[in-house]
Amino acid sequence: MVLAPFDYARPETIDAAADALADGRGQVLAGGQSLVAAMNLGRQSPVRLVDINQIPELTEVTYAADRIIIGATVRLAELRESPRLLREAPLLYAALRHVAHVQIRTRATLGGNLSQADPCSELPAVMVALGATATLRSQQGERDVAMADYIVGPYRTSGDQTELLTRVTVPLPSGAAAGFYEIARKAKDWPVIGAGAQVRVNADGFIDDAWVGACGLAGRPRKLIEVEQALRGKPADADALRSAASVATGAEEYPGARAGARYRERVLPVVVERALVTAVETTREQEHVA
Ligand SMILES: Cc1cc2nc3c(=O)[nH]c(=O)nc-3n(C[C@H](O)[C@H](O)[C@H](O)COP(=O)(O)OP(=O)(O)OC[C@H]3O[C@@H](n4cnc5c(N)ncnc54)[C@H](O)[C@@H]3O)c2cc1C
């Protein structure tokens, strides 16, 4: 297929990117792993591509005591190869291990992955579980949006065409280990359904706190609050994990789902339980090493 003609802008600052998007006729180009494929298939025909790959500020990763701030064009491969991320953001890291192939991750960006808003993507699920925030910028200024309000439906965000996602702030719960489990038709493919869990187990072996999210369940990622509540104060043993996972619910039909809602609802407790078991086993391994 021959691509429809389009204009191309390559701003070198966030302000210049906001200017290039201001008339609402531009579309952000990040890693291009989804957008260029959609253009090749004739599914998207942007009037103007605004290539944000030359903006140094968007490539920064900053760690603070209780959070990490990740620029929109940080590549998934860079995050995946970071020992510090594994140590300090274990749930994010656990999810990243399942995202696509190395070739895709080398180009794909965090901002692109989240803005693509694929219901099956792993990272949005752990972002909403952890309570991450998206920072959006336009000529009108900057605003922060909870990730749960940024990703609003299959392939839809609440950002408008004049806005650029500039960075993501992810809270980092201390002293917690994580696991991610998914069912996919092929290795490294998008999952049919997946769940990520981070748990903090106290010295007496009880769960102090938990963060659990699912992808593929509905048209947008879901924080499984019912599971988190069922875990708090319980012993970190197999029975309690299974019992908490059994309350997970919420499968819905949505366009492009890789399996029916009935199947996804049925396997959801198993997927959540396996993520929880990995998180608790990892906690024990860490105690053993310490
Ligand atoms: C073979 C294959 C397998 C894959 N497997 C998985 C998988 O298992 N799990 C998974 O999660 N993903 C998977 N992906 C998707 C891949 O991770 C996404 O294509 C990628 O994350 C999109 O990021 P990008 O930087 O390439 O974005 P682009 O393709 O450049 O952009 C995607 C969309 O987001 C918008 N956008 C990008 N950046 C911004 C921004 N900063 N602000 C506002 N809007 C923005 C663009 O305008 C476009 O609409 C796979 C892709 C392929 C091709």
Automatic annotation (TrEMBL):
<dbReference type="Pfam" id="PF00941">
    <property type="entry name" value="FAD_binding_5"/>
</dbReference>
<feature type="domain" description="FAD-binding PCMH-type">
    <location>
        <begin position="1"/>
        <end position="175"/>
    </location>
</feature>
<dbReference type="InterPro" id="IPR005107">
    <property type="entry name" value="CO_DH_flav_C"/>
</dbReference>
<dbReference type="Pfam" id="PF03450">
    <property type="entry name" value="CO_deh_flav_C"/>
</dbReference>
<dbReference type="InterPro" id="IPR002346">
    <property type="entry name" value="Mopterin_DH_FAD-bd"/>
</dbReference>
<dbReference type="InterPro" id="IPR016167">
    <property type="entry name" value="FAD-bd_PCMH_sub1"/>
</dbReference>
<dbReference type="InterPro" id="IPR036318">
    <property type="entry name" value="FAD-bd_PCMH-like_sf"/>
</dbReference>
<dbReference type="InterPro" id="IPR036683">
    <property type="entry name" value="CO_DH_flav_C_dom_sf"/>
</dbReference>
<dbReference type="GO" id="GO:0016491">
    <property type="term" value="F:oxidoreductase activity"/>
</dbReference>
<protein>
    <submittedName>
        <fullName>Xanthine dehydrogenase family protein subunit M</fullName>
    </submittedName>
</protein>
<keyword id="KW-0560">Oxidoreductase</keyword>
<dbReference type="InterPro" id="IPR016166">
    <property type="entry name" value="FAD-bd_PCMH"/>
</dbReference>
<keyword id="KW-0285">Flavoprotein</keyword>
<dbReference type="InterPro" id="IPR051312">
    <property type="entry name" value="Diverse_Substr_Oxidored"/>
</dbReference>
<dbReference type="InterPro" id="IPR016169">
    <property type="entry name" value="FAD-bd_PCMH_sub2"/>
</dbReference>
<dbReference type="GO" id="GO:0071949">
    <property type="term" value="F:FAD binding"/>
</dbReference>
<keyword id="KW-0274">FAD</keyword>
